[in-house]
Amino acid sequence: MFEKIFIEESVKDLEYTKRILNFFPKIESKVINKTEDVWGRVKKPYLQKRETLNLFIGRKEGALVKETPDAYGMGKEKHYFFIHAYNCIYECQYCYLQGYFNTPDIVLFVNHDEIIRDMQQLVDENPDSWFHAGEYSDSLALSHLTNEWDEYWEFFKKNPKAKLELRTKSVNLKSIINLEPLDNVYVSFTLAGHKEGKTYDLRTPSVKARLSAIKKLVEKGFKIGIHLDPIVHSEDLENNYETLLKELALVLPDKQLGYLSIGVVRFTKDVFKEVEGNYPDSPIMTQNFIKSFDGKVRYSHPMRMWMLNKVKDICIKNNFSSEKIYMCMENED
């Protein structure tokens, strides 16, 4: 998977670093002063990830935990995301990371004790706070390399009012499947219709495989979150989501569903340009987008509301509670 591994001087002796290196004994590694001295210094095309990727093991500095944008999560509690990695091994055509960083190379941050310290300070101020993992990377895809989630589990066990969400498209359950299910920890899967998943979610586990992973976690007693986001319009949208929601209902009882978010595809102007260049033949490029209320490129408000409400109706029809459903990143125009 990786051509070279760069290790930041400050973390070279940490146990997490050693665990990662044990997985790649034959890959060339090099100790560097700071991750940012090498990572992203020269622009590397996003699609180069198909051929070669480098791995960086570093220490996250600055803001380790950040407040989320409005309408990011459900409820009125404080919502934060914490930064444990940069970039993703998957290749979703709509992914905003292709226009966010200067490189697709992966960074794994291993100073989890400092991240948890900052989370504790926020929980001391607001015990009901939500914390989300997976903003700049998939939360599970590479988690077997470090097995950091057991340390976070302990934190949320000690702080039962705080909540954790692991956002993923991965079926890599190795790092969590044997952990104790907690009422305040949710493993959240992003799903789409089978056709949409095959078209747009490149190099990811199939939607069928994700449904199977959900089933395994449900049987173990885990709480599950679902993100039907981003939805891309198609002529078969209703039928595709009817099929998906019926299949989801068979493996996920409503009692173990924590929340279900619905959102439509959206881009910043810069990311849209990257998508245009990377995937000129994608059906995304045939969509009727406008510049919306927040400056993003997305469907018109009537179109968005039709799509969102149609999918919400399908969710309710398949016995998912309406009070658990929310619309992600939506405000009135």
Would you summarize the structure shown here?
The chain is α/β, with parallel strands linked by helices and 333 residues long. Helices cover 29% and strands 23% of the residues. The relative contact order is 0.11.
Could you give the order of the helices and strands?
EHEEEEEEEHEHEEHEHEHEHEEHE
Can you tell me the CATH topology?
Answer: pyruvate-formate lyase- activating enzyme
Taking strands numbered 1, 2, ... along the chain, how are they ordered across the largest sheet? 4-5-9-10-11-13-14-17
- Report the mean per-residue pLDDT as an integer: 95
Name the CATH architecture.
Alpha-Beta Horseshoe
Hey, roughly how much beta strand do the residues contain? 15-25%
Largest sheet: 8 strands, mixed
> How far apart are the termini?
44 Å
Summing up helix and strand content along with how strands pair, one would put the structural category as alpha/beta
Helix content: 25-40%
The CATH class: Alpha Beta
Shape: globular
Helical stretch tally? 8
What is the radius of gyration computed over CA atoms, rounded to a whole number of angstroms?
Answer: 20 Å
> How many strand segments?
17
Number of domains: 1
In the predicted model, the low-confidence regions spanning at least 5 consecutive residues are none
